[in-house]
Design a protein that fits this description.
By secondary structure, this protein is of the alpha+beta class. It contains 2 helices and 4 strands. A 4-stranded antiparallel beta sheet has the order 1-2-3-4, covered by helices on one side.
Length: about 80
């Protein structure tokens, strides 16, 4: 499964945000910047958490280079709950 959760148009750039995976393998987020830079990482076995984080990244205009740090923080925070 791969689902686009949104995109952002910036001057000379476009960011696309996707959630992909399955319950068995876990769900990940992919951020694609104007067909040149792509980052992807498994986030959770819970689809709702992956979609929530992908939408949060879209609203914050997060670039592919920052995905791994943000996912690491997200996983740490959700393990505290």
């Amino acid at each position: 499964m791969k689902k686009c959760v949104g995109n952002i148009e910036l001057p000379g750039r476009r960011l696309d945000y996707y959630v992909y995976g399955s319950h068995k393998s876990g769900y990940g987020i992919e951020i694609k910047e104007t067909c040149t830079e792509i980052a992807e990482q498994i986030v959770s076995c819970n689809l709702e958490k992956a979609v929530y984080l992908a939408q949060k990244l879209q609203h914050g205009s997060v670039f592919p280079a920052n995905l791994s740090e943000i996912v690491e923080d997200f996983q740490y925070e959700t393990n505290l709950d």
